[in-house]
Amino acid sequence: TAYGLPQKWDRFSWQDVSRVEAKTKGSTQFADSLVTCTWATRHNIPVLTEALNAATGWDLSFDEALKVGRRAINIMRLFNIKAGHTPDMDKPMPRYGSTPVDGPVKGISVEPHWEDMVSNYYHLMGWDRKTGSPLPETLSELGLEHLLKD
């Protein structure tokens, strides 16, 4: 795939879920920055990037488009941390973490794997595994080093 992910992945594997979430993070924010309809575009970043390039004459790549979104994600993360957000708040609602009693996912819960999944996600995002704060090198890679002093 464009994100460097396998075509098929295990939606019940905490490793796969955290990897897919981290790899695709930023696509929604990029699409939203273009003020496009989610339902019409399905956040098809390659197509949106092509359309943006056609409309503006730019030569933005897929990776650069994701970087735009990842910049937004990291700025939001820093803002939320400054406003008091802690890793303890990165937990699912009880309904999401509960174990279904019937249906195709009967007996499967994310709760036992939540801490590992979040830790792996933080690592893949370039965030401190304990605090959830973007690491200095992550901010530098995104051109956000000016936010380090805050």
Structural class: mainly alpha
Oligomeric state: single chain
CATH architecture: Orthogonal Bundle
Helix and strand element order? HHHHHHHH
Number of helices: 8
What is the β-strand count?
A: 0
CATH-wise, what's the superfamily?
Answer: Aldehyde Ferredoxin Oxidoreductase Protein, subunit A, domain 3
Number of domains: 1
Q: Which spans of ≥5 residues are poorly predicted at pLDDT below 50? A: none
Q: What top-tier CATH class fits best?
A: Mainly Alpha
As a percent range, the share of strand residues is under 5%
What do you see in this structure?
- Pfam families: AFOR_C (PF01314).
- InterPro entries: Ald_Fedxn_OxRdtase_dom3, OxRdtase_Ald_Fedxn_C, Tungsten_al_ferr_oxy-like_C, W-dependent_AOR.
- This is Aldehyde ferredoxin oxidoreductase C-terminal domain-containing protein.
- By secondary structure, the chain is mostly helical.
- It has a single domain (14-147), classed as Aldehyde Ferredoxin Oxidoreductase Protein, subunit A, domain 3 (Orthogonal Bundle), CATH 1.10.599.
- The protein contains eight helices and no strands.
- The chain has helices at residues 14-24, 27-33, 38-41, 45-56, 62-82, 94-97, 114-125, 136-141.
- The mean pLDDT is 91.
